[in-house]
């Protein structure tokens, strides 16, 4: 281990301690200990009782440690974990773990970064966290002007063109420049992943893709002209399409990724198809970052019923993309 020459361990940031992150990290180690190497950046006291752990002082030690227990780059988060109850004392340490994970990947000491879910309100309350979410914070740390959030499972890849903003603000934020950047970043990323001529389907914003202007003009004024120009460059793009007919099995067979206009238009279909196995991939960072496609799940934290499938899929995808 690791399973391919030259591959390094994956850094896993702790995420919100009061959520299911500590539980699924322990479960992921049990499932993957013979397959790949990763290490947790977090407080080992937050892990479920009885979790085999190996405290490491450097990422490189994770490779040998995996066979004995979950490797932990131990950081004191300042207070015990109470499942389901966020503690503001933890918030600065949650942010610091993400920052450290990025630094380790950027300096080549970790092959990729996988992030456990955060609770944005808890970080805002406890650490004055100024970002709408993980994706925007990672773009800030990477020093890139724009990144793309892709959700992926075996059945579907989706990219929302706008992310963590109120639905009422989507039309104002849906600009030609922003949509073009999203499509170009996605096209390049899929090409880098082994799809040299990806098929891209683009949803409309309005019902029935605006129905010729009867239900909105964003398709006519913003989306369609851009897609025409990109098709003229040689990109394989379909749209703007009615979102309510884009996600059945027959439609999905016709494209490699769907570009959607807002958060729920993208996330509802993928979470319906594969709630447990979806993975969040950030495109355009300059390094590999994945995360589970679910939240902190305060309502089930500490009950021993959390499903680690999405984190396991995220770690596997991080390995594959980094490799």
TrEMBL record:
List the transmembrane segments: none
Keyword Protease in the entry? The reply is: no
**Reactions this protein catalyses:** 4-(phosphooxy)-L-threonine + NAD(+) = 3-amino-2-oxopropyl phosphate + CO2 + NADH
Source superkingdom: Bacteria
User: Which principal EC class is assigned to this enzyme?
Assistant: oxidoreductase
Record's keyword terms, sorted? Cobalt, Cytoplasm, Magnesium, Metal-binding, NAD, NADP, Oxidoreductase, Pyridoxine biosynthesis, Zinc
As one GO molecular function, the record gives:
NAD binding
Tell me its EC number(s), please. Answer: 1.1.1.262
Where does the signal sequence lie? none
* Gene Ontology BP term (one): pyridoxal phosphate biosynthetic process
Give, as in the UniProt entry, the pathway in which the protein acts.
Cofactor biosynthesis; pyridoxine 5'-phosphate biosynthesis; pyridoxine 5'-phosphate from D-erythrose 4-phosphate: step 4/5
Q: Decide whether keyword ATP-binding is in the record.
A: no
User: May I have one GO cellular component term?
Assistant: cytoplasm
Q: Where in the cell is it found?
A: Cytoplasm
Q: Which cofactor does it need?
A: Zn(2+); Mg(2+); Co(2+)
Pfam families, alphabetically? PdxA
Q: Where does substrate bind?
A: 134-135, 271, 280, 289
SUBUNIT field: Homodimer.
Q: What else is known?
A: The active site is located at the dimer interface.
Q: What job does this protein perform? A: Catalyzes the NAD(P)-dependent oxidation of 4-(phosphooxy)-L-threonine (HTP) into 2-amino-3-oxo-4-(phosphooxy)butyric acid which spontaneously decarboxylates to form 3-amino-2-oxopropyl phosphate (AHAP).
Q: What is this protein called?
A: 4-hydroxythreonine-4-phosphate dehydrogenase
Q: Which source organism?
A: Maritimibacter fusiformis
Lineage, highest ranks first: Bacteria, Pseudomonadati, Pseudomonadota, Alphaproteobacteria, Rhodobacterales
